[in-house]
Structures are given as structure tokens and as C-alpha cells.
Amino acid sequence: MQRILGGDNDPLADRNIAYQERVANRHIRNELKRLLEAHRWILILGRTGIGKTREAAELANHLNQEGWTVLYLKLGE
Asked: Vertex 41, ends 47 and 39: CA angle to 5°?
């Protein structure tokens, strides 16, 4: 998470900026969680800079707090 969202000491790091709902009356994280529970995997697509990585990291953090083990796998490692 630190590598994705930035360090703790940087006030402008993504991890220090509060999570915000970007669409009124729509909670994307809950929608992603429902899809993940139904299908066991999801693919998040979209244009650059809209917050796909942030959304995935927030969902992973939320699931970790619920007791799930979330892995971050990199190609070739």
C-alpha cells in the first residue's frame, strides 16, 4: 500500500487524502466488492488518471480489515 499510495510523512501522498465518492448516490467500492464476491475476480478498466489503482488499493485494504488475505502479485516475481 505504501508503494502504491505514498508514504506516511508526505501530506500530499494519496494515502493521506481521504477517500471520496466520485459519483453521487453510487458507492463504487461496494459495487466492486459485490462483483468480487459473486465472480471471485474483477478487472478494473478505464482511462489514465481516474483512480483505478486507488480504488483497487482501497478495496484491498477494506477486505484486509475484514480478515481476507490480499496479495499484490507482479509479473515475473
From this structure: 120
- Residue 57 neighbours by CB under 8 Å, 6+ apart: 1, 4, 5
Q: Mean pLDDT, to the nearest integer, of 23-44? A: 85
What crossing angle do the helices spanning 28-39 and 52-65 adopt, rounded to 10°?
70
Backbone angles phi, psi at 54, to 5 degrees: -60, -45
Q: What does the domain layout of the chain look like in residue ranges?
A: 2-65
Cell of 36: 468480487
> Is-contact 62 55, C-beta < 8 A?
no
Instruction: Give the whole-angstrom CA distance, residue 74 versus residue 42.
Output: 16
- Rounded Cα–Cα distance for residues 71 and 41 (Å): 13
pLDDT at 38: 93
The model's pTM is 0.62
